[in-house]
TrEMBL record, chain A:
This is Carbohydrate ABC transporter permease. It is a multi-pass membrane protein. CDD domains: TM_PBP2. It comes from Phycicoccus sonneratiae. InterPro entries: BP-dep_ABC_trans_perm (IPR050901), MetI-like (IPR000515), MetI-like_sf (IPR035906). Residues 68-261 form the ABC transmembrane type-1 domain.
């Protein structure tokens, strides 16, 4: 084949391929971007004018804000618990030499990637049932915290390891007590690491469907991820105005947090409990 | 306390053993109760005939390996196992892997607009909450008003009902390719440009460069990536939000099977037995993954 034709063909092929990929990845997203603003929304993604009327459905629906609040409670509660427990553990593991520490950390990390919400659905359900924690948000928070903690300790220990010990040493030379060292020296230094881990945990829980779906029965306790699937009218037809605006409001924080964390720390954001 | 003693050197913060233990204990307790215990308990539960309702609810009886033989004899289980292999193999091992690599490879030389545009789209598919993307795909594929039917001019083409496995495989490729793309982009940037240059000078085609220069360098990354996405896809529950495992179990992968049997059906003993199989499969993948990682750190 003529080399010029060949180069031309491969270039055209490259463009066509790129276009197809753009279409493939963009097509499902169109609905999320267009539908909240289109009058008379349906399944079909289209924009036949711009309106904010759909957001009235969001404001009027009595389930919307409780479910967002539930998401905040679950995600915020888990993130706080994960950060607090992981920071304490990571600091102690970094500064005090315990025999078998690295093996312990690896074993825990291994466990947390094995014991996922999917694989451990049955024992978790039964355990919370017998503890009387089923249908209680604290149960969901504890289960999710347990799943996220090993990775969080791992990440934070890396962070603490990189903080020079001389900070603490000099503070102690000046007569600071261990508590003061912790509060005034250590905490400010590892705060960025705690923030990263906190955001990571927040996003993980915010998007989690399975764990609250299985462990919570009462709709008034369900987070946004689950409640989204209840916005159907009596005929089984989805309430498009409500779902589209709700999906947008529910997604935006995740995208924003991702952008913030990604800009500061680069990728390696996902992982841990999935599903 | 003199700060020069060896004990203080090991413990710069002056925490002391006891307090250090106190710091670690809360995390260990939560992990122990909500992560380790359920996994271990599954071992025992799987040996019981234990139901939420009926006779098994009053007094669980010990049935030994009965649940496992029952599973192997249940055509729904063996079919679910097969569907899971198709789902993981098709969407993760092949789909995400190949598409992620292709994207990373082609986007290196692409213009800035194409590269950043496509990257944003691929990343969005990955970071949006699972419930949202599942509904987006429902809207895309809907039988009457879906965007896909409107674009193709097909009417009443029920994609989800007619081709449920294709739908969840393509969906998961769309959903998860970002991770492979990011990982391979990082891996490809470690391939020395001069090696590619030399290969090109000596007349190697793009394909030959890929095979002889790039693939040997990133082989370990391929293995790492494949294991991770396999683990995640194997534990993925989101197909349930798209197809509900239906129609008639035609897309019922193992996570959905366990959910239906144990949580909906209340067969907790039987569900635990299947859960243990899932845990063991996860363990095999994860141990393999750690071995690969260790091999890499020793090699460098």
């Amino acid at each position: 084949m003529n080399p010029v034709v060949r180069t031309l063909l491969s270039r055209v092929g490259g463009y066509v391929g790129a276009c197809l990929l753009v279409v493939f990845f963009a097509l499902p997203l169109l609905w999320l971007v267009l539908t909240p603003f289109t009058p008379n929304p349906t399944y079909r993604a289209s924009l036949s004018g711009v309106t904010l009327d759909n957001f009235r459905a969001l404001v009027d629906n009595p389930q919307v804000w409780p479910s967002i609040r539930n998401s905040l409670v679950l995600a915020g509660g888990s993130a706080l618990l994960v950060v607090a427990l992981a920071a304490l553990a990571a600091y102690a593991l970094s500064r005090v030499r315990v025999p078998g520490r690295d093996q312990l950390l690896y074993a825990l990390l291994l466990l947390s990637s094995i014991v996922t919400g999917t694989a451990a659905m049955v024992p978790l359900f039964l355990m919370l049932f017998q503890l009387g924690l089923i249908d209680r948000q604290v149960g969901v928070v504890l289960v999710l915290t347990g799943g996220l903690l090993p990775a969080a300790v791992f990440m934070l220990k890396d962070f603490v390891d990189s903080v020079p010990r001389s900070y603490e040493e000099s503070a102690r030379v000046f007569g600071a007590k261990p508590n003061q060292v912790l509060r005034h020296v250590v905490l400010p230094v590892i705060r960025p690491g705690m923030a990263t881990v906190g955001v990571w945990a927040l996003v993980q829980v915010w998007g989690n469907f399975l764990v609250p779906y299985v462990l919570l029965a009462n709709p008034s306790k369900q987070p946004a991820a689950v409640v989204m699937y209840t916005f159907y009218d009596a005929g089984g037809q989805p309430d498009f105005a409500l779902i589209s605006t709700f999906a947008l409001v529910y997604s935006v924080p995740v995208v924003l947090l991702y952008l913030v964390v990604n800009r500061r720390y680069g990728f390696a954001f996902q992982g841990g409990i999935k599903g | 306390m003199p700060s020069t003693s060896p004990a203080a050197e090991r413990d710069v913060a002056g925490l002391g053993r006891a307090r250090a233990l106190g710091f670690v204990a809360p995390a260990l307790v939560v992990i122990g109760v909500f992560l380790v215990f359920p996994a271990v308990w599954t071992l025992y539960l799987g040996l019981l005939d234990y139901s939420l309702t009926g006779a098994g609810a009053q007094a669980p009886t010990f049935v030994g390996l009965g649940n496992y033989t029952e599973a192997l004899g249940d055509p729904a289980f063996t079919r679910s196992l097969g569907l899971t292999l198709v789902y993981v193999g098709g969407s993760a091992v092949l789909g995400q892997n190949v598409l992620g690599f292709a994207l990373a490879w082609r986007l290196r030389g692409a213009g800035k607009v194409v590269r950043s545009g496509l990257t944003v789209l691929v990343l969005l598919a990955w970071i949006l909450p699972g419930s949202v993307v599942a509904f987006l795909w429902q809207a895309l594929l809907d039988r009457r008003g879906g965007t896909l039917n409107a674009l193709l001019g097909t009417t009443d083409q029920a994609w989800v009902l007619d081709h449920p496995m294709w739908v969840i495989v393509v969906f998961n490729i769309w959903r998860g390719t970002a991770f492979s793309m990011l990982l391979y982009t990082a891996a490809l940037s470690s391939v020395p440009r001069s090696h590619l240059e030399v290969a090109r000078m000596s007349g190697a085609s793009g394909w030959q460069q890929l095979r002889d220069v790039v693939l040997p360098t990133v082989r370990r990354h391929v293995l790492t990536n494949t294991l991770l996405i396999t683990l995640w896809t194997f534990n993925d529950f989101s197909p349930y939000l798209l197809t509900g495992g239906g129609p008639n179990g035609a897309s019922e992968i193992l996570p959905v099977y366990v959910y239906r049997e144990a949580i909906i059906g209340g067969h907790l003993g039987y569900g635990s037995a299947i859960s243990l199989l899932l845990l063991l499969a996860n363990l095999v993948i994860a141990v393999f993954y750690l071995r690969v990682l260790r091999g890499r750190t020793e090699a460098t």
